[in-house]
Amino acid sequence: TMSAIGTQLAPVVAPVVRAPTRRSRPRGMRVVAMGGRMDGTAGSLFGGGKKVADEANLPPPGYRSRTDIPKMLNNTPHPREVRKWFYDDCRESVVAAVTGANPKTRVKAWIEFPELNVNGDVYRIGTLLELVREVAMALAADGKRVRVCVQGSMGQGVFQGLPLSLSGVARILDMMDWGDADEFITRGSIGGDVPQPDDAYFILISPQNIVGYSVLPYLQEMEKAAGDRPIIMINPKLGDIQSAGNVMSIRGRGERREYVEKTWEEVYHFRLLYKKPFFFPIYGALRYGTGGMWELYKKFGKMEQEEWKLLRTYDDGEPGAAEITKRILAKD
Length: 332
What we know:
Elements: H1 2-8, H2 80-99, E1 106-112, H3 125-139, E2 146-149, H4 169-175, E3 185-188, E4 201-205, H5 216-226, E5 231-234, H6 253-263, E6 265-273, E7 284-289, E8 294-300, E9 307-314, H7 321-328
Helix pairs in contact: 2-3
């Protein structure tokens, strides 16, 4: 009967129709924390944009900020005056660190704007060498001898290798004009046989590991030979690079990190802040100089109306990725 058939049929349930959801950002776009560094230390994923009401780490009254950071840094090649601003800022901190009342002997400087960003398409090795020349000439001004060093090929036979960003740098150094300081500046590589008795300072140009080979043993040998004479690393990239040869593997990683982070003191740092992996637009900058605090700047305006504002200062070390992103993306 119809009643019997009806009891055997499953009830028909109408589908639930939900309102279409609105995506907060296009499919495939990643929001990545702005604090990630380019020297081998990775940032973390973080989404920002919330209202920040606390007043922690506000700049102290009378703090000397560098709100004169050049404008329109995405315009490349940079004008001479833009490069000079960065050269002077870095040179002052580095020279003060190794020649002050309590000179430091193992220091590093990290400076990254578009022409010094090896991950961008406007990287210019000439800009890095001009910076090195400014630092070397300042150290040699009182007659001290400075040795400017760039690492050589690592490996053996057909497996010899050199970082692409350092290819040809040694030859360019041989042709550089050092002005009045020429007789006090010499070139060298990185290794235990490089330091000579009359060398007073050593500048290492962007020492870095490559696949299958680590530059750290060469650095340690050079350190031992140099003794208490100052060694300056500019834009080092000493993070581990994995390879099939079991070089820079998990074993010994803690000791390598401790050597890089504890032995070498950072005396200057400047880098622009973006939403990685993009390099446009520029949201802000992170800066540190000898004798000061870590400074977090935010960029306001566009084109000729750009201006930089100091948001926060940190006297307990470099702020993390989450803190940087929270401050930069905070709603004003």
